[in-house]
Amino acid sequence: MEPEPVRRVLADNLRRARLDSGISLSELSRRSGIGKATLSALESGAGNPTIETVFSLSRALGAPISTLLEDSVPTLSVVRGDEQDVLSGPTIDLRMLRTLRRNGVAVEVFDQQIRTGGPQPSSGHIGTEHTIVQVGTLRVHVGEQTVDLHAGDAIAFDAHQPHSYEAIDGDVRSVLLLEYPPGEAQRVFDLHP
Prior knowledge:
GO molecular function: DNA binding; DNA-binding transcription factor activity
Pfam family, one: Cupin_2
Protein name: HTH cro/C1-type domain-containing protein
Number of helices: 6
Keywords: DNA-binding
Strand content: 35-45%
InterPro entries: Cro/C1-type_HTH, Cupin_2, Lambda_DNA-bd_dom_sf, RmlC-like_jellyroll, RmlC_Cupin_sf, TransReg_Diox_bact_type
Oligomer: single chain
Shape: globular
């Protein structure tokens, strides 16, 4: 799938989330560390979003990633992984598959592929992060702790903390779930009823 749909969806959702939060482009720039011109380009659909950009915006807005990336979802849907837009970082590719909502909790489901080449850091974001390794060995750093996970292993942690993923001995395939409790999930419900 071409990158244009992700740009269009991000442009629409970013502007709506920023305005709903009542903050200016300048304030979002300050909070996210992303230049005002870059934010303006993203809101107009002309920018080139990266995984780091989307996570920074999510953190700065205090909003789940799906608030920025998800179009409305029909009651019945089939998601083909190879047809989804990819958010890429230096060693990671994420494909958003679905947002699940129940009893005030929202869970975003991602196909996650981590390539060898060093850790993919995150300075933290809202929610609880769950990763289930399907193939390979994944090293996860959370705060001062380091854990190696193998196929079939899972980890969960408070995603507000700095953390990183690193593929050890070959590429890793995993499922990433970002869970937002009722207070944090409300933004998902408000923006994507």
